Amino acid sequence: MYPYYRPRRLRENEIIRDLIAETKPDYNKLIMPYFVIEGVDSTQAIESMPGIQRLPIDNLLKQLDYDVKLGVRAIILFGIPYEKDEKASGAYDENGIVQKACREIKKHFPELLIITDVCLCEYTSHGHCGMVKGKQIDNDSTLELLAKTAVSHAMAGADIIAPSDMMDGRVEAIRQELDDKGFMTIPILSYAAKYASAFYGPFRDAAGSAPQFGDRRSYQMDYRNAHEALKEVYLDIDEGADIVMVKPALSYLDIIYRVKQSMELPVCAYNVSGEYSMVKAAGTLGFGDEAKLVREIMTAIFRAGADMVISYHTCDILKNRWFD
Ligand code: PBG
User: Fold this and answer.
1) Which is the closest atom of ligand 1 to the Cα of 276?
2) Which CATH number belongs to the domain containing residue 135 in this structure?
3) pLDDT tens-digit series, residues 200-239
4) DSSP code per residue over 212-235
């Protein structure tokens, strides 16, 4: 008790603070997302995500040339097809945009780790993550298409498959199909606890994937629930997930913490589009120091228990050495 105990003794200078620091954010634990777009020649800015673009394959390769030199070692790819339809045909087409991009990236950057997002919403005309029957999103008929999509990604060179659709049973369906086709060594990073969140807004602008009717609350989780996240994670582990994700990150640090405390698997946190854009907006408006905000946010996500983080800030962090 004071005056014998004085916590400030250990905060006196940088050296002491560094010695006792419990968490150090790590450059090697960052994953950078990219949007690759089909059927256009030039890069498109995304208005609600300053600094992030939709890139045709050639420009993506040029961008990667630069970003890999900065230290990007792992990426997650999202595809924006030229045409969308009811069946999400572009998602599992062997010449779809993600499949083509994977082959080109592997050719030019064999060392780069490619994670592919497996979902239908970027490819369906209605913008939902699964097949639509009437006004319902049909779970079971979606599974086969997700599994097909996953295999087509693996065949194109994806290193990790990341299903983000939130259909029940998708991890098992994908695992079985990958194994059947000889991809038993490809890990599954499942978006296990993915909440229905307003923080995905800018992503949906980027991918043109906002649902045309209703919303995603019949498949994504209700943010009032925390125990349910553990159930989702258990189920995905049972079905064969190798890494589990909590998404979004910032308003869900308690979920990251609980999952990390309860499971033995690596946990990935997704620092999503809306979280990125808020910080960018604050920086631009002069309401906050972007570098400091980003360092604090990323440290908090690691402190909560994330083993790795998907973040649109990755390139800025690496370029400006914000973790040094
Ligand atoms: C696809 C998907 C989404 C995100 C990742 N995969 C959008 C959604 O569920 O509506 C969001 C990522 C972000 O906001 O950065 N289902």
Assistant:
1) 15
2) 3.20.20.70
3) 999 999 999 999 999 999 999 999 999 999 999 999 999 9
4) SSS-STTTSBPTT-SHHHHHHHHH
The 10 Å Cβ neighbour count of residue 1 is: 4
Q: What is the pTM of this model?
A: 0.98
**Does residue 10 belong to any structural domain of this protein?**
no
Q: In this structure, is residue 36 part of a structural domain? A: yes
Query: 105 C-alpha to center of ligand 1: Å?
Result: 22
Tokens of 208: 């043109």
* Domain-located, residue 305: yes
Residue 210 to residue 219: CA distance in whole angstroms:
15
Residues with CB under 6 A from ligand 1: 117, 119, 121, 129, 164, 200, 203-204, 216, 272-273
Cα distances (Å, whole numbers) of residue 3 to 7, 8, 9, 20: 10, 11, 12, 21
Count of domains for the chain: 1
| Tens of pLDDT, residues 165-197 | 999 999 999 999 999 999 999 999 999 999 999
Q: For residue 283, what are the domain limits?
A: 24-320
- 194, 231, 260, 280: the catalytic one is 194
